[in-house]
Design a protein that fits this description.
The complex is a heterodimer of chains A (376) and B (352). Chain A has 376 residues and is of the alpha/beta class. Chain A has 14 helices and ten strands. In chain A, the strands form three sheets. In chain A, strands 2-1-3-6 form a four-stranded mixed β-sheet, with helices on both faces. In chain A, strand 4 and strand 5 form a beta hairpin. The chains are: A alpha/beta (376), B alpha/beta (352). At the A-B interface, loops of A face helix 2 of B.
């Protein structure tokens, strides 16, 4: 992973190369059969498409098959799944999985526009709705139906910033309080500035290979295996959904990952969820079955999702504090889980974590990718 | 040879608009803007006030404090502004004529976003130091522009400061001890020809632009002069809003007491070229003999000029000879509603 932040002087290709080289070095691998790249919108953010060839060439690896995959903010998770599928199918032995987004080359309104293309442009975007607005609507419905409170939303941000303080790669190292969140600039009622993940530059990468080769390479280090991969879609348009208090794609993707891995929510020790807004974390923990519908907010309030809690959520600081370079996020989540399972997470290490989950989500829940990782 | 400011003056228009009045029009959340930017109200130029008229007022105030400088002895006059009334035709000639300093005078208009004001002071002191002219006037003035609804609209304000620089020790009220500038090509804010309003790089205007240049300029100045923050009675930084100058001051280890006198932006707004120079006039209005002052400007594009200024014993004789900056800021205010403000700022399209 690169450090995440407003990296004004680092272009997209350098961000990507830094993360890719770090992953290859860490794995001790000098050639791969495939490179996958999760990236949402390099065209709108930097004016650059045709990323796969461009970036592979940046590493002097021209000739290697490479593919960019896109599913809005779930592009990174999709890149992991594409790499996993290649190895699982026997098409590739070793895959370099990467995600990257360079977001600060444009100003705030252009960034908002680029991100907004992940919503339904005809039925949402043209009418002026941006992502904070869409998630604010989800929050309102959740508050109305389940009594989720403004303070519970704020506690998600407080917890994730507390975790981010312990992550050297995080964009923001801030200790914040519930009062800081509720008194921050109102963005889309009820969401304030500190309910929203930031605009971030960053890249993340990992190397996937067969379990056999991984054992050879790993030596004494524990081998982390992807035992479950689930993906699902939902209506991109909020108005077309039967139920607004449930993230359908997350629920389905989670069920598919649980089924493949043969696990239940109670078997998961740590989880990274897609907290692009505070309400998204609450809804994701419900959709993944960690809490009953409507209880995600009170779970945060009770500390069940903190580092010492029953199910630590977003040990990395999450999108909120670690930063959200959209295409890189899904890969960075898996990097965090693997780091935890290797026992290398430093001050934020969750002791005894052997099974972890990463949940990545596109748009307002129009797509989701979930992975379960285990130490074997 | 000692050179320094022999007379100084400021001009702030009487009209004000409150931040709430602007926020109301755009449906913005005024309390969070106030907290985020630490801005409460800003000055607005009247129908008969522009960069030239404000420069004349400020220079006349400077002349009143100059111990009888004969305008005919002024050999150079510079106005730093990004709102010169004419695209082609100097502002400086009008001011030079109005104060009676023509025709044996070198005049130029300067532009460097918000740094143009301290450039005029820099060039004025350099020419006096070189012995080219007896007195030189450095003026900083702007009726700055911010697009309707843009974050800049909450800050873009109007005001001017003028400094007459000379080398006669009996006239100097504030010695210019040393200067230092720090400049890179950092395009954080710009306005191309024929554009009505400037554009900015949002958050890019913060760390890589304002903070990097201001910090490096101020640190470079203190290193060059062998001084530390605690040696200064006052420090003044460019103030694009209420928050940045206090944050940069704290980062450099200055105290609230050192910063507050020259910190006018919460009630004045951002007078662009005039911002830190008007802050200097507010400091000189209350400074005591021997006080050391650090002045650090910032202009997008980007660069930052620093000055170490030592106040002399003559200061107390001149402070009351012209309207003080703080009284211009705090008294006789006329509050505008957005409609009148929009009219005065030329935001209403008239019949042709």
């Amino acid at each position: 992973m690169t450090s995440f932040g407003e990296l004004w002087e680092t272009p997209l290709r350098s961000l990507w190369a830094e993360a890719a080289l770090a992953a290859l070095d860490d794995a001790g691998v000098d050639s791969v059969d495939l490179v996958t790249i999760g990236c949402m919108s390099s065209g709108l953010f930097t004016g650059q498409e045709h990323l796969a060839s461009l970036l592979v060439d940046e590493l002097g690896m021209a000739g290697v098959p490479a593919a960019r995959v896109e599913s809005a903010c779930a592009s990174g998770g999709l890149a992991v799944r594409a790499g996993f599928a290649e190895v699982a199918a026997g098409l590739s032995d070793t895959v370099l999985v990467t995600g990257v987004e360079k977001m600060t080359d444009v100003d705030g309104s252009d960034a908002t526009y680029a991100l907004g293309t992940a919503a339904d442009s005809e039925w949402e975007g043209f009418h002026g709705v941006t992502f904070p607005g869409l998630y604010a609507m989800l929050a309102r419905v959740h508050m109305q139906k389940y009594g989720t409170t403004r303070e519970q939303l704020a506690q998600v941000a407080v917890k994730n910033h507390a975790n981010g303080l312990l992550n050297p790669h995080a964009q923001y190292h801030l200790k914040i309080s519930v009062e800081d969140v509720v008194n921050s600039t109102l963005v889309a009622d009820p969401l304030c500035l500190f309910d929203c993940s930031p605009v971030t530059d960053g890249a993340a990468a990992l190397v996937l290979t067969t379990v056999e080769r991984a054992r050879e390479i790993a030596g004494d280090k524990p081998v982390v295996v992807i035992t479950g991969s689930g993906m699902a879609t939902d209506s991109v348009t909020l108005a077309n959904r039967a139920e607004l208090t449930e993230l359908g794609a997350v629920k389905l993707a989670g069920e598919r990952a649980y089924a493949m891995a043969g696990k239940q929510p109670e078997n998961i020790h740590i989880v990274e969820v897609h907290d692009c807004f505070t309400i998204a974390e609450i809804m994701a923990t419900e959709a993944l079955g960690f809490f009953d519908p409507g209880y995600g907010g009170s779970a945060v309030e009770k500390g069940l999702t903190s580092l010492q809690g029953k199910i630590p959520v977003n040990t990395s600081g999450g999108l909120k504090s670690k930063g959200h370079p959209v295409g890189a996020t899904g890969v960075a989540q898996v990097v965090e889980i693997a780091t935890q399972l290797w026992g290398e997470a430093g001050q934020r290490q969750v002791e005894g974590a052997r099974v972890g989950m990463a949940q990545n989500m596109g748009g307002s829940g129009g797509s989701s990718v979930v992975h379960i990782l285990e130490v074997v | 040879m000692t050179i320094g400011i022999v007379g100084y003056g400021a001009f702030i228009p009487r009209r004000r608009i409150k931040l709430e009045e602007i926020a109301k029009v755009w449906g913005a959340d005024a309390p969070s803007y106030k907290r985020g930017l630490r801005l409460f109200e800003k000055s607005v130029p009247g129908a008969d006030e522009d960069t030239v008229t404000m420069s004349v007022e400020a220079t006349r105030n400077a002349l009143m404090r100059s111990g009888g400088v004969d305008p005919a002895d002024i050999g150079a006059l510079y106005i730093g502004s990004e709102s010169h009334p004419y695209a082609v035709k100097p502002s400086g000639t009008i001011v030079a004529e109005a104060i009676g300093a023509v025709p044996a005078i070198h005049v130029a208009d300067l532009e460097f976003a918000c740094k143009a004001g301290t450039e005029s002071l820099f060039i004025a002191q350099a020419l006096v130091k070189a012995g080219e002219v007896k007195y030189a006037v450095g003026i900083a003035a702007d009726t700055s522009q911010g697009a309707p609804g843009d974050a800049l609209e909450y800050s873009a304000a109007a005001g001017a400061a003028a400094f007459i620089v000379g080398a006669d020790e009996d006239k100097i009220v504030a010695e210019i001890v040393d200067t230092y500038s720090w400049t890179t090509d950092t395009p954080d804010f710009w306005r191309r020809e024929y554009m009505h309003y400037p554009r900015h790089g949002s958050r890019f205007t913060g760390e890589p632009a304002y903070f990097r240049h201001t910090m490096n300029s101020a640190k470079g100045m203190m290193d060059k002069a062998g001084l530390e923050p605690k040696d200064f009675a006052y420090a003044i930084f460019h103030q694009p809003n209420g928050k940045f100058p206090m944050r940069v001051g704290k980062k450099l280890d200055f105290t609230n007491e050192q910063l507050e006198t020259g910190w006018l932006s919460p009630w004045l707004g951002n007078t662009y070229s005039g911002a830190s120079p008007i802050g200097l006039t507010a400091v000189l209005d209350i400074a005591s003999p021997g006080d050391l002052v650090l002045l650090t400007s910032f202009g997008s594009g980007a660069g930052s000029d620093s000055f170490v200024i030592r106040v002399t014993g003559r200061i107390s004789e001149v402070q009351n000879l012209a309207p003080k900056t703080r009284s211009q800021l705090d008294e006789n205010k006329i509050y505008l509603e957005y409609g009148a403000y929009a009219k005065l700022r030329g935001k209403i399209r008239m019949a042709e």
